Amino acid sequence: MRRGDRETGVVDEYRIEDHPDLRDDGWAREAARRAEREARVRRLRSWRPRRRVLGGLAIAVAAVLLAWAVIATGSGEPDAFDPDEPFARTTAADWADGADGVVAPEAAAVGGFTAERVADAYARVRQAVVTARLDRRVVADHDLEPLFALFAPDLRDSLRTLFDGRNDGEAALVATRADPGSRLAEAEPKVRGKMAAEVGPAGELVVRTDYTIAYAFRPDRPEAVRGPLDAVAVARFQVRYAVRSGSPGVEGLWADESVGTLRSIACTAAKRGYLAPALAEPGLPPGLDFDVAVPASPTDGCPD
C-alpha cells in the first residue's frame, strides 16, 4: 500500500505490518482468537433439503445457521423480577401478546399476482409463523405434525429428516422448541414484527417475515433471578416463504430461507437447537435488556 503527502506530492511506502496495533502483543492475540472463532462459525453446517427440479427450476430450501448472544449486565442493581408479570421492565413489555403480534398488512396486487392471491399467501404464512413459533404443541410439546401439515408435500419429507434428532441446531431455524429442562410460563410470548409480499427471483409469490418473540419461562427459584431477562429468552427469525404451483408435491407453501438470532439464552441449549433462558446456565452474565435493531454476533456472549 502507498500513501502520499497532499502538499509535497511525496509518496512513501506503507506496510500494513507497520501499523502500531499490530505491534501490540495483546491486540494481536485478541485478533487471532477472534479470527479462529469466526472461522469455526463459518465451518458450521447449513441445512439444505433435497433439491427438486420443476421445468428447469431448482427448488431448494436453504438455512443459515443460528447465531446466539447473551446481553451483558449493565452497571447498577438488576431490576426486580415478578413471576406474574415476567415481561415488566423489558423492551418487550409493550409488544403484542402471542398471535396478536403476527398481523398481515392489507393485501394489494404484487407483480402479476392479484390482491386475492396475496391475501391467501399472507394467511398461509401467518399460520406458519404462529404454528412454528407460538403454538404450544410445537414449542412446549415438540409435536411438529401441525407445522409439517402447512407445507408442500415435497418439503415435508425434508422437514421430517431435519427433525430426526441429528440436525437439531439447524432445526431451530424452522421451529422453536423449548428445552425439555425448562418450563414455559403461562404468559403468552410477546411479539413484534412484520411481513411483506414480493415477487421472488423465479417469479413466484414470496412473503418475507421478520419477527422477534420474547418467551417467558417459569424459574424454579424466582428469588434467584437476577433480572427480568434471566427468565425471558428472545428470538428473532427472518424467513422467506414462497407459495408455489406445479405438481402435487411442489404445490403449496415453502420456507426458502431462514436466519435467526437469540438473546438472553442458555448457550448449551441453543447449540443443541433448543430454547432456554439465561437462568438455566447460571455461569453466564444476566441480560438486562435488548435492542432488536442491533444484530447479534455469532460469537458474543456464548463461550467456545
| Uncertain residue ranges | 1-23, 27-77, 296-301
Radius of gyration: 23 Å
Number of domains: 2
Q: Share of helix among residues?
A: 10-25%
Say how many strands there are. 10
Distance between the termini: 35 Å
What about the largest sheet? 6 strands, mixed
SS-based class:
alpha+beta
Task: Write down the overall mean pLDDT.
Answer: 75
SSE order: EEHEEEEHHHHHEEEEH
Determine the number of helices (DSSP H or I, runs of at least 4 residues). 7
Strand content: 15-25%
Choose one word for the global shape: globular
Strand order of the largest sheet: 5-10-9-8-7-6
Keywords: Membrane, Transmembrane, Transmembrane helix
Transmembrane segments: 53-71
Q: What do these coordinates show?
A:
This protein is α+β, with helices and mostly antiparallel strands and 304 residues long. The chain contains 7 helices and 10 strands. The chain has helices spanning 25-43, 115-133, 136-139, 145-148, 153-162, 168-171, 267-271, and strands at 2-4, 11-13, 52-54, 57-59, 67-69, 96-97, 190-199, 205-216, 232-244, 252-263. The strands form 3 sheets. Strands 5-10-9-8-7-6 form a 6-stranded mixed sheet, with helices on one face. A two-stranded antiparallel ribbon has the order 1-2. Strands 3-4 form a two-stranded antiparallel ribbon. Strand 3 (52-54) and strand 4 form a beta hairpin. The relative contact order is 0.19. The chain crosses the membrane at residues 53-71. Keywords: Membrane, Transmembrane, Transmembrane helix.
